[in-house]
Amino acid sequence: RLSQACARDLRREETRRVDIEAFSPSLQQPIPVASIRDVGDFLSRRLMVTHNQNHADIRTASRLHMIHGTVLNITSFLALWMEHSHTDGDKFTLCKLPPLDNSVGRSPSS
Questions:
Q1: Residue 5 and residue 32: Cα distance in Å, rounded?
Q2: Nearest partner of 34 among 66, 86, 85, 80, judged by Cα
């Protein structure tokens, strides 16, 4: 699911954050597996990064607005995948592979 963070959950540099979450049966709550953050011009003001045709006066130059994100949190994703793939007992199956075809790589017999 997509979840937009409320103001009290944002970090100091964030103006907006959207998380992609997956449900965890063991925790009975959604866990974020990816996110996109809008940090506005917070970083560019501190690093003095600007874009302008005239680089002579940095005070009048426009500040960069930045967006960054996490495409996939591998640790959380694998934990959730294993949790959803759990079978009876102590075993789990991530995905069932089709049986190998023994004729692959052999020349056809006549």
A1: 11
A2: 80
Q: Whole-structure pTM over 0.70, yes or no?
A: no
Nearest-angstrom CA–CA distance, 62 and 4 = 28
Q: Please check whether residue 36 is in contact with residue 69, taking contact to mean a CB–CB distance below 8 angstroms.
A: yes
Q: What is the mean pLDDT of the segment spanning 73-92? A: 79
Taking the chain, what is the end-to-end CA distance rounded to the nearest angstrom? 55
Of residues 89 and 20, more confidence is placed in: 20
**φ, ψ (nearest 5 deg) of residue 49:** -100, 125
pLDDT tens by residue, 52-61: 766 666 677 7
Q: Identify the H or E element spanning 19.
A: strand 16-24
- Measure the CA–CA gap between 43 and 37, rounded to whole angstroms: 13
Query: What residues pair up with 10 in beta bridges, in sequence order?
Result: none
Q: Determine contact, residues 69/35, Cβ cutoff 8 Å.
A: yes
**Amino acid of residue 90:** D
Amino acid at 23: F
